[in-house]
Design goal:
Mean pLDDT: 86
Distance between the termini: 13 Å
Number of strands: 0
Low-confidence stretches: 1-53
Helix content: 55-70%
Radius of gyration: 25 Å
Order of helices and strands: HHHHHHHHHHHHHHHHHHHHH
Shape: globular
Largest sheet: none
Structural class: mainly alpha
Length: 445
């Protein structure tokens, strides 16, 4: 039995961002490219980044019962404006405002219920509040109501009603509505397929985004940069993309800083510079951006700045981003086991391996299989627990785990000897290797 778990993971893993939530800044999606689904769903940052309000004044005026005051106070508690983020207080004041018919508060309550942000997730309640806000002609509420009909969220699926909602939202200037209407035309989903109509929607959407960006809306500057980057509604322009990213970064937007780090790292629209990549990643990472923390950890590790790298991997391991928390927990465990950037600590290494394994990390699962089979990291031998982790890793198609598990069944180590199971596992491993070979991929053990 052998172990390859102490090598650093594939350092290009951060580029495998296969899906982007349609909730991007509550207004945009880029054909499921560039970042993972959790990147723009944090409620600390939103499209409607209203002007800073004086929290103390709002608290003083809350007794007047104004729905607008209640809504603004909820925004403060939700987004940490002048006060620390308190989800339950945000929900309380949104609810008070929504009960008075405040469309913006009704929309936000719908979002909270749909995503289960500190409230019990309820698609039915989400649909109810979207409907309430749409009845008052809130543009984004119409767009979200359309998505409910399209995907059957809290209501029966109806593409016809979805298209009607998207059209209403688009006519009222909803960026989210324009995006979904464009996608419907593009895919012929509930409407006659038309690339020309899709292009019109994308172009109008871009114009709205750029107009807001040029008026100083920082989040829209990021979206404008992404439109130029991917050519959505406008001809691609790396230079214009960098220009808008830079404007937003100068206004301390962590996502713009992250993207500039990416651009300088890969040379996308700028001359490659690891120093500048580290600079911008650091700006974003120090604001809590898990994507930046993770990428920065790799760059610092490659620059042999191991203690700094460990620090940022630790930060990412505690983030709310499932992917980066899982990957970083595994790397932190490796560092603690090997003494890379931090004093060796087998007990803590085990803790982080277990955290990563619990989150479904196959390499961590495989490592724990060996830990328990051989009694490593200060753990007592336990064939039962070792078999559990090896099996979990094998179920996740980890090649090493399949080989190790085959050896265990072949030799009957802690289990009933079974050449048949061993052969099945080896056949599965051979099949996976063949698939990887056909794709031209290098196996990640």
């Amino acid at each position: 039995m052998h172990d390859t778990s102490n090598s650093m993971p594939n350092k290009h893993i951060e580029h495998n961002h296969s899906c982007l939530s349609w909730k991007l800044f509550e207004a945009a999606s880029f054909s499921k490219r560039e970042v993972d689904i959790e990147f723009f769903t944090s409620y600390r940052k939103s499209l409607k980044n209203s002007e800073s309000v004086n929290f103390a004044i709002l608290k003083r005026e809350i007794g007047n019962g104004s729905a607008e005051t209640q809504y603004l106070l909820a925004e403060c508690y939700r987004r940490g404006k002048g006060v620390r983020i308190l989800p339950q207080k945000a929900y309380h004041y949104y609810h008070l405002a929504a009960d008075q018919g405040h469309a913006g508060a009704q929309l936000q309550l719908g979002i909270l219920y749909e995503d289960g942000w500190e409230v019990a997730q309820s698609e039915e309640m989400a649909f109810f509040y979207y409907q309430c806000a749409a009845d008052q002609n809130h543009p984004d509420a119409w767009a979200r109501l359309g998505l409910c009909y399209e995907e059957g969220i809290g209501t029966e699926r109806s593409l016809e009603q979805a298209i009607d909602c998207y059209r209403t939202a688009a006519k009222q200037g909803s960026i989210l509505g324009l995006y979904h209407l464009a996608k419907a035309y593009e895919m012929g989903n509930g409407i006659e397929k038309s690339s020309a109509q899709a292009a019109i929607c994308y172009k109008k959407r871009f114009q709205l985004i750029q107009s807001a960006a040029d008026m100083g809306n920082v989040e829209m500057q990021v979206l404008t940069a992404l439109c130029f980057k991917h050519g959505e509604g406008v001809d691609p322009s790396p230079e214009a993309s960098i220009q808008y990213f830079t404007q937003a970064a100068e206004n301390n937007n962590e996502y713009a800083q992250y993207y500039l780090g990416q651009c300088y790292r890969t040379g996308d629209g700028v001359k490659p510079s690891i120093e500048k990549a580290i600079y911008y990643y650091t700006l974003a990472a120090d604001q809590g951006c898990a994507h930046a923390q993770f990428n920065l950890g790799y760059l610092l590790h490659d620059s042999q700045r191991y203690s700094e790298a460990f620090h940022y991997f630790m930060c990412a391991s505690s983030s709310s981003s499932g992917f980066y928390a899982r990957e970083s927990s595994y790397i932190v465990a490796q560092c603690l086991e090997a003494g890379c950037g931090i004093a060796r600590n087998p007990r803590k290494a085990f803790f982080y391996y277990r955290r990563a394994a619990k989150a479904g990390h196959p390499k961590a699962q495989c490592r724990l299989g060996k830990v328990f089979y051989f009694g490593e990291l200060g753990r007592k031998k336990s064939y039962e627990r070792g078999l559990h982790y090896y099996t979990a890793a094998a179920d996740n198609n980890h090649l090493d785990a399949l080989e190790e598990l085959a050896g265990i069944y072949s030799e009957g180590i802690g289990v009933e000897k079974s050449p048949e199971k061993a052969n099945d596992l080896l056949r599965k491993r051979a099949f996976l290797l063949a698939v990887l070979a056909n794709k031209g991929d290098t196996p990640s053990l």
